[in-house]
């Protein structure tokens, strides 16, 4: 049996709430004007009257008296609380389900009943009843309107239906990226909980088209392997005519770095909306749900002209609960034993000193340059790419990482649960422009496969084979395609595997390679070639800095009596470093108070010199780290000392035999000094 119903009709329980006039039932049925027809007629009558009264002055705006029941928004505009949203009466109530989502216009609370004829009402009780008739039970309502005047959220909660408010401005503004992240997370969480029952999510803005369609398109993009064109068309099919504002459609293509096909056209504004866009005087009708002002122009990340810095905040914040889940996931994947889930689990090197220098002769090491960039781990999932900073905070960036595919076949999928480690640098190009690049130097998990116990040399090779090459191959195909649907050039940064060099090439690394780098470097990293991945402090992972660049990160505070104090951490608590002093070369000391500052040691004056504020860190170095840095400063291993020691080490049989074998294997890699590196 097929059930059909008028989406705007009131369900039977509501009809009983209003007494029926017997004489009205027996009367001859007359034509009743629709809201659109009434508005058109009254608008024309008003214009004609104004034209007669003021023939020489043209139409004037008539200020109507304010009604008693008002609502004042944040921008001090007043609204009639009982005023219906423009176009709401004739807007279809809801569309067809998309996955588990039902797009809908906003249901109006009972305080609107006196202003709506019975056949046009659409309240919470009617929503629940209509969906039950169609065999659907609601479990969640996501409200995207920018006001609270339409209904009380507690009405849903009384029916055991969860209500989530994600306020988004309408009219000239698309929802911000953090709101999108919140929406997608709520939907994914709800869907995960529906293991034994099939419940639905009602998503609404004011009319259930632009903001609702925009959010649903984002959800489809992050939960299914489809293009943005397919997502837009899926919504239009379920909720005709779909998204009808060009800015929303353009924003979706730009966000997902896809080229908009010529075949995708923005549908015309629906008749019920066009007729309500003007008031009786022909002026635009504003509602407290519309938002104020003009939307900011859409910009592509690679076209931004402001200078890049390492302090720039990349990506968009994610919901707190999602971040906590991903923190626990990372700890589980890395098998890290920590007391506090908020501790960053990434591997940290220790400063090179005379004692641990001997490790280079006991284990087989490779070397790389120490870039002066920003440390990030990166988590790749089906629903997005997440940068993880030293504060163990996650921010979503829009990137594409296809998985490795067979010859002559396209990528069928993208990475899911792949955990990388690396650093973000800013390359200065020859033409004066800047380019941000993420240098990957380790992979700990590959599509949910743990790799932390495998030797570093295997993990390092997997970076190129499993992460970099699939991107490069697909990008090349896209560039050669007549109509590429994805634009890698719109991504916020480039991606490359960081190179590691035989220990015997350290001289060239220091003398030829580093001076030609297009980003800053402050030393070397020595990586055990056969080492597993070690979380937190890794005593076998060594860093050497140019002596003048050895540094410690302190917490600096200025007290009320203008005393300056430096703090470190010891066992998770602040430790005052008495007798230590810091000098600043530029700004007033008070401007650094309460911040983490990186300081180098001036041995002549025996004071610390502030180098920069560490915006990427929220805590100072641990006291043990300080002791190791001071040991390194005291030992004063200069560049000449280091090269002399390495020259002796590489003559050992352990190195000599492996170096000869690996020179042939690595001959296809670019050697240091072969040109300007980016």
From TrEMBL:
Q: Which GO terms describe its cellular component?
A: nucleus
Summarize where GTP binds, as residue positions.
Answer: 375, 390, 421-423, 543-545, 612-617
User: Which residues does the Swiss-Prot or TrEMBL record annotate as the active site?
Assistant: 205 (phosphocysteine intermediate), 370 (n6-gmp-lysine intermediate)
| InterPro entries in alphabetical order | Dual-sp_phosphatase_cat-dom (IPR000340), mRNA_cap_enz_bifunc (IPR017074), mRNA_cap_enzyme_adenylation (IPR001339), mRNA_cap_enzyme_C (IPR013846), mRNA_Capping_Enz/RNA_Phosphat (IPR051029), NA-bd_OB-fold (IPR012340), Prot-tyrosine_phosphatase-like (IPR029021), Tyr_Pase_AS (IPR016130)
Keywords assigned = GTP-binding, mRNA capping, mRNA processing, Nucleotide-binding, Nucleotidyltransferase, Nucleus, Transferase
Look up the record and give one Gene Ontology term from the biological process aspect.
7-methylguanosine mRNA capping
Molecular function as annotated in GO: ATP binding; GTP binding; mRNA 5'-triphosphate monophosphatase activity; mRNA guanylyltransferase activity
- Reactions that this protein is recorded to catalyse: a 5'-end diphospho-ribonucleoside in mRNA + GTP + H(+) = a 5'-end (5'-triphosphoguanosine)-ribonucleoside in mRNA + diphosphate
Give TM regions: none
Q: At the top level of its lineage, which domain of life is listed?
A: Eukaryota
Give the E.C. number(s): 2.7.7.50
Query: Which PROSITE patterns did the record assign?
Result: TYR_PHOSPHATASE_1 (PS00383), TYR_PHOSPHATASE_2 (PS50056)
Where is this chain's protein located in or outside the cell?
Nucleus
Q: Where is the signal peptide?
A: none
Where in this chain does the record put each Tyrosine specific protein phosphatases domain? Answer: 181-250
Pfam families from the UniProt entry? DSPc (PF00782), mRNA_cap_C (PF03919), mRNA_cap_enzyme (PF01331)
Q: What is its main location?
A: nucleus
Q: What is this protein called?
A: mRNA guanylyltransferase
Instruction: Tell me the lineage of the source organism.
Output: Eukaryota, Viridiplantae, Streptophyta, Embryophyta, Tracheophyta
